[in-house]
Amino acid sequence: METASTDSEFLERVLAAGTILVNIGDIDILLEQILTEARFFTNADAGSIYTVEGDVLSFCHSQNETIVARGERIPYTRFTIPKSKTSMAGYVACTGEILNIDDVRKIPVEAPYSFDDSYDKIAIYRTRSMLTLPLINNRQTVVGVLQLINARANQREFIPFHSTMELLGKYYATLGALALERAMMTRTLLMRMVNMTEFRDPKETGPHVNRVGSYSVAIYDSWAKANEVEETDRIHNRDVLRMAAMLHDVGKTGISDIILKKPDRLTSDERNTMEKHCFIGAEVLRNCESTFDEMARNIALSHHENWDGSGYPQGLKGDEIPFMARITAIADVFDALSSRRAYKDPWPDHLVTEEMEKLFVSKFDPDLKFHFTSQLEVLKEIMETYPEQ
Ligand SMILES: [Fe+2]
Ligand SMILES: [Fe+2]
User: Nearest bound ligand to CA 276?
Assistant: First the structure.
């Protein structure tokens, strides 16, 4: 991780990070960014972020530079732990206090919390210092927990977190909590739109749209890094894409149940009607006032266009198809093939790969093939993160 070399650079980065956080709308992208920024400023080797959901803490995201430097991947999967004072994250969630522990293996036995070393054992990692901060909203409710692990003196040596880091961490936790509340509300509104679509088409489930949103971001990220897209643009685009891709089939709300729920093959008239869902989606999202509106509209309108011009509704070809719609098309088809539907079992991995290979010859943007195949492991982890209920 880069480090700020002078005081003014550091201050500049502090202020820039604040602006980035308050402008992120998607909750997953936001959680990842809060952790990235907080780790940067506290020079932490690793960290995790949780959201509080009723009686449990939901583990949302983790980062670990030592593990990444070893060429290994950090598990993407989510899990929950009880919101209880017996764990450090739980204690912070229950009390709203900051915990700054110099060495987690020397926590006094009388402390209400203890360190669970099971993750260290699995990951072959040694946690030493840990700074755990509550994300508190303006109604003084703890909405999340930020855990920073192993402050670094240099690349090799882990040291305790200095007390000034508590203050800086608190600043990010406060900014993060405010942004998190808004992002939670945005996600709820998006999911309501998705639920309305699901009433009409049972294939358009919450997990399906979450997977399509996350797959699209993984493919875009790979492309953006390879094409040296500027960091602030990349953060903005992945944020907007994560939300916009979720609404790819919102136009199905305007298609009759008789067609959407028909178990048999559609007649050509019915197929023509079905294909109108792209225009209807674009109509629903017609007021292009923000980058989100514009991207969501492009995706809803063009996610069934094909690279060779054989798609619908406009028969666009190649670069005429908006870039983010090309990415979402890959994500949507990959998910349709690899997940269970009422009428089919999930295809086995090798058949999904074979079919995607074929589609990259004519239907998908060939320049994105590498960015899809190189992300397959990530896509599989996303699949496990959002299983069908
Ligand atoms: Fe569609
Ligand atoms: Fe879909």
Answer: 1
Which of the two residues, 77 and 52, has the higher pLDDT score? Answer: 52
Q: Which pTM was predicted?
A: 0.85
pLDDT in tens, 300-356: 999 999 999 999 999 999 999 999 999 999 999 999 999 987 677 889 999 999 999
Whole-number Å distance, alpha carbon 250 to ligand 1 midpoint, is: 8
**Alpha carbon of 364 to ligand 1 centroid (Å):** 15
What is 7-183's CATH number? 3.30.450.40
Q: How far is ligand 2, taken at its centre, from the CA of residue 243, in Å?
A: 14
Give CATH for domain 201-385.
Answer: 1.10.3210.10
Q: Quickly state the pLDDT bin for 76 (edges 50, 70, 90).
A: low
Whole-number Å distance, alpha carbon 104 to ligand 1 midpoint, is 50
CA of 249 from ligand 2 middle (Å) equals 6
The DSSP secondary structure of 210-276, one letter per residue, reads HHHHHHHHHHHHHHHHHTT--HHHHHHHHHHHHHHGGGTTGGGGGS-HHHHT--SPPPHHHHHHHHT
Closest ligand to Cα 341? 2
Expressed in angstroms and rounded, the spacing between residue 328 Cα and the centre of ligand 2 is 9
CA of 111 to the centre of ligand 1 (A): 54
- pLDDT of amino acid 104: 96
- Where, residue-wise, is CATH 1.10.3210.10 in the chain? 201-385
Alpha helices in the chain (DSSP H): 7-23, 27-42, 65-69, 88-95, 118-123, 163-200, 206-226, 231-244, 257-260, 268-275, 277-284, 291-302, 323-338, 349-362, 369-373, 376-385
Tell me how far the alpha carbon of residue 53 is from its chain's centroid: 18
User: What's the gap in Å between 244 CA and the centre of ligand 1?
Assistant: 13
Residues 358-381, mean pLDDT to the nearest whole number: 96
**Residue 289 predicted with pLDDT over 80:** no
List every span in the chain annotated with CATH 3.30.450.40: 7-183
The whole-angstrom separation of Cα 254 and Cα 300 is 13
- Which token pair is 225? 């890094």
Query: Which ligand is the nearest neighbour of the Cα of 216?
Result: 2
276 CA → ligand 2 middle, Å: 15
